[in-house]
Amino acid sequence: xxxxxxxxxxxxxxxxxxxxxxxxxxxxxxxxxxxxxxxxxxxxxxxxxxxxxxxxxxxxxxxxxxxxxxxxxxxxxxxxxxxxxxxxxxxxxxxxxxxxxxxxxxxxxxxxxxxxxxx
Length: 119
Known about the structure:
By secondary structure, the chain is mainly beta. It has helices at 31-34, 75-81, and strands at 17-22, 43-51, 57-63, 66-73, 86-95, 104-111. Helices cover 9% and strands 40% of the residues. The longest helix has 7 residues, at 75-81.
């Protein structure tokens, strides 16, 4: 897995860190109406909807105006996201069968927060 992209090697720019998250509650929202339009590389937006008792961020995942599900951001990912209210992401993986809705959906979140490169 490639953690840093080629821009990370340039000393003049901030590294961009990619992190993969899974979308939950796929069957609870509008995914059944747009699953045939989703493919790897499709851009989606995440909007912060709440924070749970542990301090983890809960984001709603939208494709255009359709809500696909929710994402919980925990641990190190919380620091990379740094409490943003809106995040752009890309679909990095999905599991679907012909003529059936999605079983799973994975997103790649990009963060360009200032990080110290070590090593």
